[in-house]
Amino acid sequence: MGTGTTSGPTRQRHTEDLLAAVSMTSAQLAQAVGRFDGDTPAMVTAAIRTAERAFEELDACYEVIDDASATGRAIAARLSALLAAEDEPGVGLELDALDTVSARVRGTDRARELLHRVLGREEAAERALPAVRRLTGADLPALPSAYADDAGFDDLMAFAAREEELAPRLREAHAERLREVAAHLVHVVEQVAAVGFADEAFAGESAHEARRAHELWVRCLAERRRDLG
Q1: Which of 140, 176, 180, 220 is the most exposed place for a label (fewest CB within 10 A)?
Q2: For residue 15, which of 23, 4, 26, 6 has the smallest C-alpha distance?
Q3: How many domains, the chain?
């Protein structure tokens, strides 16, 4: 990620960046980097060195964000495989890893804010962030059941026959519910990884939804075991 972006290629500082960073009066330079007894060239040199150090610190911050983005994508890929394998403990561990990655990026927030202030510039605006969609059990396919039939049953044999008739649809409904929740969980992680967890509110909302989706997925597994054994 370049300064203020999530591109990831090798960063190149441009002369105009440094010039913009020190576009201030001599009095402001003196206040910022110390007094040089009217030696304006020395003040400019010191200011440029200060700007260079600030850019180096920013590069280090954005390196953390770039690494977080790559790690987040890897977590999403592992989650996809673990969800397909119905590895409940493994999924939980990957979500713990996701929280760790996000916390690492949060550790750069104050430094990035301060360094941009020192350089006298606003942090480059990120692209518009997507909404974090909330998935609930009500959004999933309904589970067919003889209990939901409008027509009553005269005896238990008729009820059991109807349950057996519905069994293939019930299996498919359970499978579809698990697929939808798993796909949603992976998508949430991919979304936040794409921006390197750089936006604190978006990262927090995504982590919360990932945990909620995990809970919903575990509940869907339990419901399938209840109905199908």
Answers
A1: 176
A2: 23
A3: 1
